Amino acid sequence: MKKKPKLHTYLKKSLPSYMIPMEIVMITKIPLTIGGKIDVNKLKEDYLNGK
């Protein structure tokens, strides 16, 4: 069983259980589109597929 990060412990103190995410992914840099908005497709590609 994986050890829960400190963030989960903190969130449990202040949020209802249904609002606590099952997984937290740490991101070093948020990819942006040419227009300066978050590039959701690139974000999914890089971080949800195991970068």
Q: What do these coordinates show?
A:
The protein has 51 residues and is mostly helical. The protein has a domain at 23-51. It contains two helices and no strands. It has helices spanning 6-14, 40-48. The chain is elongated. The relative contact order is 0.12. The model has no long low-confidence stretch (mean pLDDT 84). This is Acyl-CoA synthetase (AMP-forming)/AMP-acid ligase II. GO terms for molecular function: ligase activity. Keywords: Ligase.
Number of helices: 2
Question: What series of H and E elements makes up the topology?
Answer: HH
Overall mean pLDDT: 84
Major sheet:
none
Instruction: List the uncertain runs.
Output: none
The secondary-structure class comes to mainly alpha
Count of DSSP E strands? 0
Short description:
GO terms for molecular function: ligase activity. This protein is mainly α.
Task: Name a few traits of the molecule.
single chain; about 50 residues; mainly alpha; 2 helices; elongated
Write the layout of secondary structure elements.
Blueprint: H1 6-14, H2 40-48
InterPro entries: AMP-bd_C_sf
Organism: Cytobacillus purgationiresistens
Keywords: Ligase
